[in-house]
């Protein structure tokens, strides 16, 4: 008992002691801190009290109180706030004993950014306020920076700091956007913090119209484009509207990716109007109006054909048309265009137009007014036309020549041609009140067609001449017409106006007879002779469709006086001759230059050069010389061709190059002036076939083709008479000797049109220089071709002097007839027959014998004719080192001077001094042809 009493007394006598660790505290807002309260003396209870004096109960989240054991308790403050600051008290009690301790907690606010949005967007031009809310204790000092540099407010008055530390920019610009820095500072603590703010300045869209008003054409399936370019930030989106109705992509409208271009498909007139372009972005929206003007091509909406009767009431054709702009309407028929108003002084035709309607009125329609009329509507956009038909019903109209000329025994046709509508017409013939034919008119026949009747009268006596009546009728009316049959007469004499003499020919120009006798002139007869030499030569020239105003007389001697006269021939007969005109032929001279004609071949780099022989100067042409060159280049080797050659083919020429071609004719008197031709080859096609001619194998590319009519190859007195009409020789050379263009030469039968064609600059006949020897076996009588109708002239025969024809005389190929008077012993005329050679004369050039060619190197092509011709032996053809005789072929004999053309000493006149001659030579089999031995270095193609 004594011990227990002692312990209780001891406890009572000991006082309580309270300690708080730490003794004080200072934290920032948001931080957490705990305090330990320790009690000495054995406390029964330990409590914590807030600065407000309120006991802090356990279980709170922001402030926690935990009794650790009998002697301690812990106070924990989580996420301290400013209002948590103050003095906290720890009180320990045990019975009647109590002790306490306090701790002062200070809480300060660190720099804290409570509201700093980024990015912050503004619209250009607005007064922008950049928000930056920052707190601290003590309150911070706020600084503003732009792109890292402190904003100098005194330099730009647009910038200023508001009381709440926000930054204001008055009238913000696009150049003001970027990164701004909001920086807070506490000098007492040296504390600093900042935030970066991205400022974006949006720009309201602006619209640029490419074309405020757009024109389009309707109803043609066309599309049109409306475009507006929008600028702004961010990039605006473009939309379209019409009448406040948004337009969407579909069958009518289509848009590009950003919507700035709108295509209106298949434009019609309904699409005309205003369209709105709308551009939108964050800054707002803008809009702009565009106008679409739609034009409409003219369209004829009403047109109706009409029917009327000739000379009846007026008829009107009406045409209506629409379009924008309003179209103008015109009327036309054939090539005649009607203008507005009256078309003739009497006002029979009247055109009236009003807005979209036009009318064409014919007051008294005639049958010639019938047909197709054209209504044409046009405006600035286009035009359209439609036909309308006017039908005019009328009584028959009888056409045809009133007078018909004929003679007894010659049937004459009287044409009663009828125009009528309706075309169901009845036609009858009468004479002296009696219908034809009848029992007394056996010499009359009638031939009918749906639109004509032909009365054939075979005049047997004078009584058959006179009047004949044709009557035609239909449901509209009847028409009659008198025809007169008149006896025909022979034509009067033509009038010779001029004679143009040459060495061996002359061109006679004349005027037609004043009177044709009522029937056309069918032929003209020319008769000429040497003055004082007795009877002359006659020749008949047929009149072609184009008429005849000049003829060529041939076979003349140089420097000789001649007289010529002419007469005209019609179906009735031959009229009187004109007065004789005397002329004198020119002296013997060199030939006239040939006339050249060039034809570019389809391949484009080949040319056919054809020439027409002119006057030979009184001496036969011996050969032709051909030279050609590219402009600004050297002349190619001269080509030596026979006198019968008509053209040369230049193949494989350079593309797109200009060439000059000279052709010279040469006789014993010398060379003619060159006939010249300039041409340009075509541009090279995209794909060519190379240098080889497609029709020849490569080994035969360099070749020369000569096609010679056998009857034109005579020399001396030897005949070249074969059944073929064309003999061709092909000379082949090795391929690798030259890359010059291929030259093809072809000769054909001379055209007779050179004699008869009107307006020839010079005739093309040949005549030897001297009087020939009399060779009876080569003389022939030339008979005049009979006329189709009787003539009043006697047939005269004679022979031509053999000296008047050359080895190549076109007179042998004339289609017109030739009449020669009977032979006159003192002044005989002789003529070379078609297949004879020229007789010997001392002026004829001598031709040496030439050996025959190697058959392996010369190909003879013979085109057999229908009728046989007499044969004649000729010397061998092509020279070679070892002559090999070739017997004459039974079907073809070739004159040597035709194939091997010998070059004379005279050179072809050309601007360049360089001249060379290419001859035709043989290439022996098994040997290579050297360039200097080739017949033609620029090889020619062979064509039969």
UniProtKB/TrEMBL annotation:
Residues 678-692, 789-820, 833-851, 930-944 have a biased composition (Polar residues). It comes from Sinocyclocheilus rhinocerous. The keyword Signal applies. GO terms for molecular function: axon guidance receptor activity. Residues 876-890 have a biased composition (Pro residues). GO terms for cellular component: axon; neuronal cell body; plasma membrane. Residues 671-695, 748-944 are annotated as: Disordered. Residues 490-588, 590-685 form the Fibronectin type-III domain. It is found in: Cell membrane. It is a single-pass type I membrane protein. The keyword NADP does not apply. Residues 16-104, 111-198, 205-291, 298-391, 396-484 form the Ig-like domain. This is Neural cell adhesion molecule 1-like. Keywords: Cell adhesion, Cell membrane, Disulfide bond, Glycoprotein, Immunoglobulin domain, Membrane, Repeat, Signal, Transmembrane, Transmembrane helix. PROSITE patterns: FN3, IG_LIKE. Residues 748-763 have a biased composition (Basic and acidic residues). InterPro entries: Cell_Adh-Cytoskel_Orgn, FN3_dom, FN3_sf, Ig-like_dom, Ig-like_dom_sf, Ig-like_fold, Ig_I-set, Ig_sub. Residues 764-773, 891-901 have a biased composition (Low complexity). GO terms for biological process: homophilic cell adhesion via plasma membrane adhesion molecules; synapse organization.
């Amino acid at each position: 008992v004594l011990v227990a009493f002692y312990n209780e007394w001891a406890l009572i006598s000991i006082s309580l002691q309270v300690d708080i660790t730490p003794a004080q505290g200072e934290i920032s807002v948001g931080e957490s801190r705990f305090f330990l309260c320790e009690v000495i003396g054995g406390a029964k209870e330990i409590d914590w009290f807030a600065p407000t004096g309120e006991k802090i109960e356990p279980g709170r989240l922001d402030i926690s109180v935990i009794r650790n054991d009998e002697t301690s308790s812990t106070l924990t403050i989580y996420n301290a706030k400013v209002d948590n600051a103050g003095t906290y008290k720890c009180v320990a009690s045990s019975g009647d004993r109590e002790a306490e301790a306090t701790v002062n907690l200070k809480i300060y606010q660190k720099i804290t950014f409570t509201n700093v949005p980024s990015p912050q967007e503004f619209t250009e031009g607005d007064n922008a306020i950049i928000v930056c809310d920052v707190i601290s204790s003590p309150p911070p000092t706020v600084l503003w920076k732009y792109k890292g540099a402190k904003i100098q407010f005194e330099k730009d008055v647009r910038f200023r700091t508001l009381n709440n530390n926000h930054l204001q920019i008055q009238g913000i610009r696009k150049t003001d956007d970027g990164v701004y820095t909001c920086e807070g500072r506490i000098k007492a603590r040296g504390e600093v913090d900042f935030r970066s703010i991205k400022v974006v300045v949006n720009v309201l869209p602006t619209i640029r119209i490419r074309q405020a008003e757009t024109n389009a054409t309707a109803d043609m399936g066309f599309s049109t484009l409306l475009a507006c370019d929008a600028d702004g930030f961010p990039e605006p989106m473009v939309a379209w509207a019409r009448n406040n109705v948004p337009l969407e992509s579909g069958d009518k409208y289509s848009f590009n990716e950003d919507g700035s271009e709108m295509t209106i498909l298949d434009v019609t007139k309904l699409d005309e109007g205003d369209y709105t372009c709308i551009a939108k972005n964050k800054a707002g929206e803008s809009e702009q109006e565009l106008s679409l003007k739609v034009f409409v091509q003219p369209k004829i909406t009403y047109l109706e054909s009409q029917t009327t009767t000739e000379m009846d009431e007026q008829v009107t054709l009406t045409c209506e048309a629409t379009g924008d702009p309003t179209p103008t309407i015109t009327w036309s028929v054939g090539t005649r265009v009607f203008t507005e108003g009256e078309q003739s002084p009497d006002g029979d035709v009247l055109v009236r137009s009003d807005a979209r309607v036009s009318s064409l009125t014919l007051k008294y329609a005639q049958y010639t007014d019938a047909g197709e009329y054209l209504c044409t509507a046009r405006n600035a956009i286009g035009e359209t036309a439609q036909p309308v038909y006017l039908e005019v019903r009328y009584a028959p109209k009888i056409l045809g020549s009133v007078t018909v000329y004929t003679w007894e025994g010659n049937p004459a046709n009287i044409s009663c041609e009828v125009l009528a509508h309706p075309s169901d017409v009845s036609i009858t013939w009468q004479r002296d009140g009696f219908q034809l034919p009848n029992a007394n008119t056996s010499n009359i026949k009638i031939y009918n067609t749906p639109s004509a009747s032909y009365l054939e009268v075979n005049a047997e006596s004078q009584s058959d001449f006179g009047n004949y009546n044709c009557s035609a009728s239909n449901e509209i009316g009847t028409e009659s017409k008198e025809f007169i049959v008149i006896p025909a007469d022979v034509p009067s004499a033509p009038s010779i106006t001029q004679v143009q003499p040459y060495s061996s020919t002359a061109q006679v120009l004349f005027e037609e007879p004043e009177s044709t006798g009522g029937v056309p002139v069918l032929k003209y007869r020319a008769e000429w002779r040497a003055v004082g030499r007795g009877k002359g030569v006659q020749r008949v020239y047929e009149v072609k469709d184009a008429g005849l105003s000049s003829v060529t007389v041939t076979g003349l001697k140089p420097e000789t006086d001649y007289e010529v006269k002419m007469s005209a021939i019609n179906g009735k007969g031959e009229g009187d001759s004109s007065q004789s005109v005397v002329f004198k032929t020119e002296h013997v001279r060199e030939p006239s230059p040939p006339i050249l004609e060039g034809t570019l071949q389809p391949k484009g780099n080949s040319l056919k050069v054809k020439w027409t022989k002119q006057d030979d100067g009184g001496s036969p042409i011996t050969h032709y010389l051909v030279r050609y060159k590219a402009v600004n280049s050297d002349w190619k080797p001269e080509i030596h061709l026979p006198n019968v050659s008509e053209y040369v083919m230049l193949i494989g020429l350079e593309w797109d190059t200009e060439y000059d071609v000279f052709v010279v004719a040469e006789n014993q008197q010398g060379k003619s002036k060159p006939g010249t031709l300039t041409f340009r080859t075509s541009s090279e096609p995209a794909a060519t076939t190379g240098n080889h001619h497609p029709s020849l194998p490569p080994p035969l590319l360099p070749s020369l083709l000569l096609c010679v009519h056998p009857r034109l190859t005579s020399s001396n007195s030897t005949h070249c008479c074969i059944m073929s009409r064309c003999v061709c020789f092909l000379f082949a050379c090795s391929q690798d000797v030259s890359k010059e263009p291929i030259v093809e030469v072809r000769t054909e039968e001379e055209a007779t049109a050179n004699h008869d064609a009107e307006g020839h600059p010079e005739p093309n006949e040949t005549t030897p220089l001297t009087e020939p020897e009399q060779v009876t076996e080569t003389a022939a009588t030339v008979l005049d071709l009979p006329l189709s109708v009787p003539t009043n002239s006697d047939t005269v025969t004679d022979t031509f002097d053999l000296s008047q024809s050359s080895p190549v005389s076109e007179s042998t190929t004339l289609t017109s007839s030739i009449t020669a008077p009977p032979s006159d012993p003192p002044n005989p005329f002789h003529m070379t027959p078609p297949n004879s050679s020229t007789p010997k004369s001392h002026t004829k050039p001598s031709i040496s014998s030439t050996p025959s060619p190697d058959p392996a190197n010369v190909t003879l092509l013979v085109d057999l004719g229908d009728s046989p011709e007499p044969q004649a032996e000729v010397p061998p053809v092509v020279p070679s080192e070892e002559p090999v005789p070739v017997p004459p072929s039974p079907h073809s004999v070739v004159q040597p001077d035709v194939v091997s053309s010998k070059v004379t000493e005279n050179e072809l006149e050309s601007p360049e001094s360089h001249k060379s001659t290419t001859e035709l030579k043989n290439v022996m089999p098994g040997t290579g042809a050297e360039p200097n031995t080739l017949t033609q270095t620029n090889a020619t193609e062979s064509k039969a």
